[in-house]
Design goal:
Elements (H helix, E strand, L loop, with lengths): L8 H14 L7 H6 L5 H9 L2 H7 L3 E5 L2 H8 L5 H9 L2 E2 L5 H5 L5 E5 L1 H5 L8 E6 L5 E5 L8 E10 L3 E6 L6 H4 L10 H7 L3 H8 L3 H8 L4 E6 L1 H13 L2 H9 L2 E2 L5 H6 L2 E4 L10 E7 L2 E5 L4 E11 L2 E6 L22 H6 L27 H11 L4 H5 L3 H9 L2
Helix pairs in contact: 3-6, 10-11, 12-14
The chain binds 2-acetamido-2-deoxy-beta-D-glucopyranose (6 copies).
The site of one 2-acetamido-2-deoxy-beta-D-glucopyranose (NAG) has 6 residues, from loops.
Function: May be a cell surface adhesion protein.
Membrane topology: Lipid-anchor; GPI-anchor
GO cellular component, one term: side of membrane
């Protein structure tokens, strides 16, 4: 398996397409389109099982090359794993629009189309490209480019065309590709920290390896896992603060960067909202908010907003993305002061743990605390937890959130 950083030619094209599609609301539904054609039902079923349907729905200017149930049965007879099926089917999604007319009028009679398989970074060399060539008698041949021009399938018919959003065509056979068909390692054999280390997240990976949190990550691989790893320079700069956390705080911080669900970039782009993490326990604890911002996907906590900067791995059931900031959970880090001018001196916060727990009182809504982002953290609840959890490193462990911060200040 060859993993590539985001910025290869293919993914530049991908980002471009995502950029275009991110500004649109969903305009087509591949599942619904194929449902009208019972002879393509197996193909349709596997698009759903592999989560490719969701990714297809997120894109525009694409072509889906469907095959009939007989052709799918031939493929399934080899008993490929669901991950291998995903690779094979993603080779059948072309990242360009080819309606029947364009297929028969290709400039110079031949073209290479990049595919969704090429865009995953799993494909190496030319293996993610499909050769489309006009043949004699109005036929159009299709072949995986890695097979040196062997055009093993041909155009059967147009299924549905929504110019220039999506073209669904039927081709005669599954395109054979040794690369796509290669057995993918079972997800539990994935070396998460190895992948991260090799692609710019070495510091985070090594910190994870030295922690109990690594087991939590590993235990979640089979059921689905999305990792947001801070880039090396970012996590390195954060290490002094990390070392200041309690042992429990360290584990929580690391687990906060994992989400126990597989989320492709396409899914993240279509889902704004609160996301639970591996550190989440109960409601509204150690979660963050995914918010799409133009072409960027950002992850917001009370104390920071990080941006996804790259994809290290995106293969069901595991995705690993790089981010440009360390995610700071509100449970461990106070929010950045919303009003810089009257910002409280840090010393006051550091003194706070000396304040006896008894002195806590109902937090009158502080002016700066007009938001209600932490509904489950009733002030009392937060104060109890803080008093129980922290052992001195208040700047990071003690002040569980902005509300609590004000509670401490007001109780003095
Ligand atoms: C095609 O996608 C565009 C956005 O790219 C959308 O505005 C339009 O409605 C879609 N067309 C159809 C026919 O669905
Ligand atoms: C697409 O259509 C299918 C079948 O009609 C439906 O179950 C599914 O929810 C739709 N997906 C979206 C994202 O609308
Ligand atoms: C078509 O062929 C001509 C001459 O070989 C070449 O210059 C041109 O770039 C080709 N066009 C495309 C789109 O491949
Ligand atoms: C596609 O394959 C054919 C041989 O079947 C070859 O002649 C053609 O050059 C290939 N097209 C491209 C764009 O590589
Ligand atoms: C995972 O990768 C790391 C770094 O490449 C390596 O040190 C470690 O031995 C690997 N672990 C396994 C279980 O292969
Ligand atoms: C770590 O905590 C100590 C004591 O609270 C504080 O003085 C120091 O500045 C902190 N270090 C960092 C890097 O935040």
């Amino acid at each position: 398996m060859k993993l590539r950083p985001e910025n290869t030619a293919g993914t530049v094209l991908l980002s471009l397409l995502l950029l275009i599609s991110s500004t649109t609301t969903q305009s087509h539904n591949i599942t619904r389109i194929l449902a009208k054609h019972p002879e393509l039902s197996t193909f349709n079923h596997y698009l759903t099982l592999t989560h490719l349907a969701a990714e297809i729905n997120q894109r525009t200017t694409i072509t889906v090359c469907a095959v009939d149930n007989a052709a799918m049965n031939e493929l399934l007879a080899k008993k490929p794993s669901i991950y291998t099926i995903k690779n094979i089917l993603s080779l059948h999604v072309l990242l360009d629009y080819f309606g029947a007319k364009k297929l028969h009028q290709i400039t110079n009679g031949t073209a290479l189309a990049a595919t969704m398989f090429q865009a995953t970074g799993t494909a190496s060399g030319s293996s993610g490209f499909v050769n489309i060539t006009d043949l004699k008698g109005g036929k159009v041949g299709f072949g995986a480019e890695e097979n040196d021009g062997v055009l093993s399938a041909s155009f059967v018919k147009s299924v549905e065309e929504i110019p220039y959003n999506i073209s669904v065509i039927q081709i005669s056979k599954v395109l054979p590709s040794n690369v796509a068909e290669a057995p993918t390692p079972g997800p539990s054999q994935l070396n998460l920290t190895g992948i991260m280390s090799a692609h710019g997240c070495k510091v985070f990976a090594e910190t994870l390896l030295a922690s109990d949190a690594e087991k939590t990550y590993d235990d979640n691989i089979d059921g689905g896992l999305t990792v947001f790893c801070p880039e090396d320079d970012v996590f390195k700069a954060f290490l002094p603060k990390f070392k200041n956390l309690t042992a429990a705080g360290k584990t929580a911080l690391l687990e906060y960067h994992g989400v126990p669900v597989y989320q492709s970039l396409a899914t993240l782009k279509s889902n704004n909202g609160v996301m639970n993490t591996l550190a989440t326990e109960g409601a509204n604890k150690y979660d963050f908010t995914v918010q799409n911002d133009g072409e960027d996907v950002t992850l917001k906590t009370k104390a920071t907003t990080a941006k996804i900067t790259g994809t290290l791995l995106d293969e069901q059931p595991v995705a690993i993305f790089t981010i440009d900031k360390v995610l700071l959970p509100r449970e461990l880090f106070k929010a950045e002061a919303p009003n810089p001018a009257p910002a409280p001196a840090p010393e006051e916060a550091a003194d706070a743990p000396a304040t006896p727990k008894k002195k806590k009182k109902k937090a009158a809504p502080a002016p700066e605390d007009g938001d209600s982002d932490a509904p489950a953290d009733s002030p009392d609840d937060a104060a109890d937890q803080t008093a129980d959890d922290n052992n001195g490193a208040v700047r990071f462990d003690g002040v569980r959130n902005w509300r609590k911060y004000w509670l401490l200040r007001w109780s003095k």
